[in-house]
Amino acid sequence: MAYVISDECISCGACASECPVSAISEGDGKYVIDAATCIDCGNCSNVCPVGAPQAE
């Protein structure tokens, strides 16, 4: 299952730099994860200061 970023996202970009497959990009008002690319590693969730990335 891919991770998704909740509305808690503060658009800091910490998650995007930690993604080993570059599945995270800046969206409209928050970052988004491409589910087809996400490998479910959890790096994004581990570095997010507000816990926005969550396993779907």
The count of strands amounts to 4
Mean of residue pLDDT? Answer: 97
Largest sheet: 2 strands, antiparallel
What order do the strands of the largest sheet run in, or round the barrel if closed?
1-4
Portion of residues within helices: 10-25%
Structure description:
β2 and β3 (31-33) form a beta hairpin. This protein has helices spanning 14-18, 43-47; strands spanning 3-5, 24-26, 31-33, 53-55. The longest helix has 5 residues, at 14-18. The strands form two sheets. Strands 1-4 form a two-stranded antiparallel sheet. The chain is globular, with a radius of gyration of 9 Å. The chain is 18% helix and 21% strand. The protein has 56 residues and is α+β, with helices and mostly antiparallel strands.
Question: How are the SSEs ordered, and which strands pair?
Answer:
Layout (H helix, E strand, L loop, with lengths): L2 E3 L8 H5 L5 E3 L4 E3 L9 H5 L5 E3 L1
Antiparallel strand pairs: 1-4, 2-3
